[in-house]
Write a structure and sequence with these properties.
9-stranded mixed sheet, mainly beta, Tachylectin-2, Chain A
Length: about 400
């Protein structure tokens, strides 16, 4: 039985300039991450992080300001948001699917899907041959292979903005001194043809290599979750799911100089990654969040389906230093989450403190139901009570 939300959190997100019309970013939310009273969200069809701030203790967020990823990283393709009006080619999206804030370092991490994409047929707009042509076209957009980190620095209060929000909280900046240490934005080097050091290594992988040629939503390689602590990262994959086993990558990065990150050999045969396979009832990974030494996993269909959607817990994930194959007996299913028919697809999760000291789960949805939308800017996210006592 799906869990029932105990409250909603309203965001005010104004439309953004698109290729041919305004882009309603509320409709494609793919991640959500709070840092104090600041909330960062993103659409998977842009190359920006949307910064919001709360003036009422987290019941609502406004004061929107977009943070262009091109301000922090050298992207191979000019994003649509940075191109002159009408001159973007639509290939500059990062397909932002995962992000997290690591309070041990002050870095905000972000990843693209690192996936290929098949064009979607639109029978209402195109005839049969045009739909077939769209199904034939598979794209590999170079910006999708972004994996990087940005300093997230605290800022003082400033006068209230037009939404009545007193600005304070955290900002994404290219360089900063945080807790006495110099921090700067950096990412894995991106290829102009598509790919990075991780996908280059994965092409030789016995389990995953063949799936890098398969588009997302067709059980192809598709990163949708990110968690970080220090220089260690976990990437959760929507696909591939191998005979019902979901894929989780475990990485260690190092500073490479000049705004670059490098991968450290950590796996068998000095591979720059470790692989973990998890039995999540045949579902893929849609988001990740660290909770102490445990990893919370949002699971959903790897194919283009509505549900089911569930939340799982891997106890002691941080302490795992060898590749793991995790049956259901070593995982805790925490709850089933609601989903709609063609709407309300849970895409991003975050942890928030509850009034009673317990943790609450904040859930952002792709294709939100009409009842979640308010005016031209408002959208409601769900809050759920989270019981972690079984761990």
């Amino acid at each position: 039985m799906p869990a029932t939300p105990v409250a909603t959190v309203r965001l005010r997100l104004p439309p953004r300039r698109g290729l041919t019309a305004e882009k309603d970013v509320r409709m494609d939310l793919s991640m959500v991450e709070p840092v104090g009273q600041t909330l960062f969200v993103a659409s998977d069809e842009t190359a920006t992080i949307e910064r919001l701030h709360s003036g009422d203790g987290g019941r609502s967020y406004g004061g929107h300001r977009p943070e262009r990823l091109s301000a922090f990283f050298d992207l191979p393709v000019t994003p649509e948001e940075d191109a002159p009006p009408g001159q973007g080619d639509g290939h500059g999206e990062v397909d932002i699917e995962g992000a997290c804030y690591d309070d041990s370092t002050g870095y905000f991490w972000v990843t693209g899907s690192m996936s290929r994409a098949r064009r979607k047929p639109k029978p209402d707009e195109h005839d049969g041959p045009a739909c077939l042509e769209r199904l034939t076209t598979v794209r590999e957009d170079p910006n999708r292979f972004l994996l990087g980190r940005i300093p997230c620095a605290p800022v003082p209060c400033t006068p209230m903005d037009t939404d009545g929000v007193r600005e304070a909280g955290h900002d994404l900046v290219r360089k900063a001194v945080i807790a006495g240490r110099k921090r700067r934005a950096a990412c894995l080097k991106l290829s102009a043809k598509g790919g990075n050091a991780l996908t280059k290594a994965l092409r030789r992988d016995v389990h995953l290599g063949r799936f890098l040629e398969v588009p997302a939503k067709e059980n192809g390689f598709d990163v949708e979750g990110l968690a970080a602590r220090g220089d260690r990262l976990w990437l959760g994959c929507r696909g591939p799911v191998l005979r019902g086993w979901a894929t989780l990558l475990d990485l260690v990065v190092a500073e490479g100089g000049k705004g670059r990150l490098t991968l450290t050999p950590v796996g068998p045969d000095d591979q720059p990654y470790r692989k973990h396979f998890l039995d999540l009832d045949g579902l893929g990974i849609r988001d990740l969040k660290l909770c102490g030494d445990d990893l919370l996993i949002l699971a959903g269909p790897t194919m283009d389906l509505d549900g089911p959607v569930s939340l799982w817990r891997w106890p002691g994930a941080v302490r795992a230093t060898e590749e793991q194959v995790l049956p259901r007996s070593r995982l805790h299913r925490i709850m089933e989450l609601p989903y709609g028919r063609g709407e309300d697809h849970a895409e991003g999760i975050a942890l928030l403190p509850g009034a009673d000291g317990r943790v609450r789960l904040l859930v952002a949805y792709d294709s939100p139901a009409p009842a979640r939308l308010h005016g031209a800017e408002g959208v409601d996210l769900d809050l759920f009570d989270l019981d972690l006592s079984d761990g």
